[in-house]
Fold this protein.
Amino acid sequence: MMTRGNLHLLTSYVSKVSGVLVQILVGAKSNEYRAALHLLGILVPLQDRLVTADAVFKLRDFSQRVLDAGSH
């Protein structure tokens, strides 16, 4: 019998429509921070959008990617 563990998902939520835009799986050998960097790369253009995140994403490279995309 094969058992499965819990899935760890990272979600992009859009408050304007009260819905989830995309979810990605956080791999067992990865972490939420790396997944968030990947998620920023696959989201629709972020120009002039407000991006909010938990304190775990306070690192400079995450913030710089948000700014480079034209977001706030």
